[in-house]
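Onboarding guide, step 5: your first structure request.
Type a short instruction followed by the sequence, for example:

Predict the 3D structure of this protein.
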Amino acid sequence: MLLIRCPWCGERDEVEFRYGGQAHVAYPADPEALTDAQWAEYLFVRDNPKGAFAERWVHAVGCRRWFSLVRDTVSYRMTSEAAQ
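The system replies with structure tokens like these:
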């Protein structure tokens, strides 16, 4: 089981959290101009690196706040976090 450090509540079991996907994905500047294929890419296509990866998480069973952290996808080590 992973231990995830919430910036507000401290370290907790992973069952208290929900994964929110890749962090820092910019919303399209002109969404009305996108084709269906471009929308599909925006909604569903994300990076899948080996190594450090910025992610969004929500502490669903605790404070219910969203935050970003960087997780190593090989070792699952959480290396940094920034409240947002």
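Each response can be followed by summary notes, for example: The CA atoms of residues 64 and 79 lie 21 Å apart.
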